[in-house]
């Protein structure tokens, strides 16, 4: 709620959404607050520890991300605040992918079953195959098309 429903949208879009959302803003805030209470309680009961991988790379400049840099940074900050609040032990692990994996393996003393470079290569192959499926999907192509101002405004006001 701090950055809007579509934090990557232009300022005028967010302004329109703010005005049209005023009648329900209080309800949504109370709902989100209660959802946070339930989620924190559940996390406290389910997890022994948490590994946070902070944002250390720029977003793709393709203009099709539903978030903004501000949203990404705020999400990192709020997550750490929530972990501190519930008292869950956590580790912030940064660096390259191999460095992150090595640190996590060391922190939890996991046995190394597959060499790290092989595991990364396999994961990258799986992601590339999944992206290939998406790129071949017509919905992907439809999302890439530029939409008119009228259509974007109608979409923004539908709620």
Q: TL;DR of this structure?
A:
The chain is mainly alpha-helical and 159 residues long. The chain is 64% helix and 4% strand.
Residue fraction in strands: under 5%
Can you list the strand order of the major beta sheet? 1-2
Which spans of ≥5 residues are poorly predicted at pLDDT below 50?
A: none
Radius of gyration: 20 Å
Main pleated-sheet profile: 2 strands, parallel
State mean pLDDT (0 to 100 scale): 86
Give me the strand/helix succession: HEHEHHHH
Ends distance: 15 Å
- Number of separate helices: 6
What level of helicity do the residues show? Answer: 55-70%
DSSP strand tally:
2
Structural class: mainly alpha
The gross shape turns out to be flat
Q: Could you explain the architecture of this structure?
A:
There is one protein chain. The protein is mainly alpha-helical. The protein has a domain of 102 residues. Helices cover 64% and strands 4% of the residues. It contains six helices and two strands. The protein has a two-stranded parallel ribbon with strand order 1-2. It is flat, with a radius of gyration of 20 Å. The model has no long low-confidence stretch (mean pLDDT 86).
